[in-house]
Amino acid sequence: MLVIHGVWAYGGLNLWAEDSGRPAVMPNQATARPSRAPRPHPFGCDPDILVDALAEASEQLGDLARKAADDELTLRLPSGPVGPLPSPELAA
Fold this sequence. Notes:
This protein is an alpha+beta fold. It contains 2 helices and 4 strands, in the order ββααββ. α1 packs antiparallel against α2. It is globular and about 45 Å long.
C-alpha cells in the first residue's frame, strides 16, 4: 500500500509516498546519535513506483507524472527518538 503526500513548494506540486512493502531501516537506539543532516525516509517509496501508481490511477495524470522532475525536497516530518515515524495510514 502507498500513502501519497504532497506539498506546494518552489512553484510546483511536490509528491512523495510511503510504501508499506519497504522494510523500516531504523537506527539502533543504543548506537544512534543525533544528526542534523537530512536522511532518506525509511518508508519512502522509489519515484518509479509512485509514477506507476499515479499512471494507474489516471491516464492523464500518469502522463503528467512521467514528465515530472525527479528532485529532492528536505522536509521536517514527524519522528521519534530514533528516526522518522510512519504515517498512521501506512499498514506495517
